[in-house]
Design brief:
The protein is an alpha/beta fold. Helices cover about 40% and strands about 15% of the residues. The chain is globular.
Length: about 475
């Protein structure tokens, strides 16, 4: 995969900032020093520093140099939950209209749809590749494909996964109609109606809908915006309940954006193995990291077959590309039966299109540009929130994905805030859609997966005024 020359030093600087080695206000090496150290040109070093500035990590002070950016710490500070695990029935109000594209008509800007916006989708690349596939394969695309997916596509997925040390077995891989179908198959392979599973809290509403349809019971495990999934709480829940599965998003959790370290992933796996709990790992944001290298999967540490990992290309290419995959581990036989029972295979055109993109370098090139744009969008959104929303508004700073989890001041009338935003055509995803409880009534999710046009920036400023 092609790398930019400046990444040799920008990755090192970004990692040092992330780990706190370089503190806010720290003066960074000069352009000339880095030129000598990395044996490259001055223009390459300057490009790299411009990239770090775009990410919001670095600022340039004229006639002085480059410094780690001073930014107010507005992240949410939470403490470990002392609550006891509570088993709940999967019932909550039906609010899907608030989490999708929704109403037509006047809209100043929508920030509630977790999918690439029109301006960030690789439309020309996708359409051109589809046309090539149609010309070359013709009527072959109109025939039945294998229920579990095309062999050539699976081979490309295995190769891509191996690059980041995730070794998938070809006999445990299913091609699915997107991530939600993969989740449905995974849960149905492991659980029966009435079984207890653990989920993240907050948890993305689409996962809650699948759980409700399958009539499962849940224990909500707190996700701290700094430290992520509360493994101690999960362990406590496993000791006192017969938990069949846990559904987690370890890489850039939706909506909090948290990323679990390799040590946390291994600790979670150890607890699951100790209590024979299947881990259903949602990795749809794993390719959308902003700095350094792609984060690992829990699957890469597993030798027990208890981990079922799934992902989708809807988040990285286009929401209309209904294609994902599930690595089902020891549950593959049951997963195959359920996949077959769900009917027709994924569109042959989609399978062959994605296969061709993965086989060349087009997908990697797109991802690189997409990640850079998302990182810029995150920086833009954070600064708009800090400048225009009420004092004591808190939010996370994501290192990947495209979600920001915002908590409004306790005195905020959220119903009025949403109503006023709706009148203006501004839409966020309300926090109450992320739980079977009312724990997140003061929160909302902001999605930054489209370019920040003048109109979209003005919409966030307006929303901040409406919240005052």
């Amino acid at each position: 995969m092609k790398v930019y020359k400046f990444e040799a030093f920008t990755n090192a600087i970004a990692e040092s900032i992330k780990e706190g080695i370089f503190k806010p206000g720290h003066k960074l090496p000069s352009v000339r020093d880095l030129k000598v150290q990395y044996q490259t040109s001055i223009s390459t070093i300057q490009q790299g520093y411009e990239y770090l500035i775009d990410l919001g990590l670095v600022e340039s002070i004229p006639k002085s140099g480059y410094y780690v950016r001073n930014r107010p710490d507005l992240s949410q500070q939470q403490v470990k939950s002392r609550q006891r695990p509570v088993v709940r029935d999967a019932t909550f109000k039906h609010h899907l209209g608030l989490t999708t594209a929704g109403k037509t008509g006047h809209q100043a800007a929508t920030f509630n749809v977790a999918a690439p916006g029109d301006l960030l989708m690789p439309q020309k690349l996708l359409l051109r590749t589809m046309q090539q596939v149609i010309r070359e394969q013709g009527a072959g695309l109109l025939r039945y494909y294998p229920s579990g997916g095309a062999t050539n596509l699976k081979e490309q997925i295995l190769k891509k996964a191996a690059v980041h040390q995730t070794l998938l077995h070809p006999d445990e891989l299913l091609i699915t109609d997107g991530a939600l179908q993969a989740l449905y198959i995974a849960l149905a392979s492991v659980c029966q109606a009435g079984d207890v599973i653990a989920i993240e809290s907050p948890c993305v509403f689409s996962v809650l809908e699948v759980i409700r349809v399958l009539q499962l019971r849940v224990i909500e495990v707190p996700v701290d915006t700094r430290s992520g999934f509360d493994i101690d709480f999960f362990h406590k829940a496993c000791r006192s309940n017969n938990i069949k599965a846990v559904v987690v998003t370890p890489n850039f959790h939706n909506p909090t954006g948290t990323l679990l370290s390799d040590e946390q992933k291994q600790a979670l796996l150890a607890v699951a193995q100790q209590h024979h709990v299947a881990i259903i790992e949602n990795d749809i944001y794993g390719d959308l990291y902003f700095h350094g290298h792609r984060p690992s999967n829990i699957k890469s540490f597993d030798d027990s077959g208890l981990v079922l990992t799934y992902t989708s290309y809807a988040k990285t290419l286009s929401p209309g590309i209904r294609l994902g995959w599930l690595s089902a581990g020891k549950f593959m036989q049951r997963a195959e039966q359920i996949r077959f029972a769900l009917g027709s295979t994924v569109s042959p055109l989609y399978q062959e299109t994605v296969c061709r993109l993965l086989a060349g370098n087009s997908y990697d090139r797109h991802l690189r540009a997409f990640r850079m744009q998302l990182a810029k969008n995150a920086y833009m959104a954070i600064n708009l929130l800090a400048a225009h929303f009420p004092e004591n508004t808190t939010f996370n700073t994501p290192a990947g994905g495209y979600n920001i989890w915002v908590k409004m001041p306790d005195h905020t009338d959220m119903a009025n805030f949403y109503a006023q935003c709706e009148k203006t055509g501004i839409r966020f995803t309300p926090g109450y859609t992320f739980s079977f409880t009312n724990a997140f009534d003061k929160y909302f999710r902001l999605v930054f997966a489209d370019k920040f046009t003048t109109k979209r920036k003005a919409a966030i400023r307006k929303a901040g005024q409406l919240a005052l």
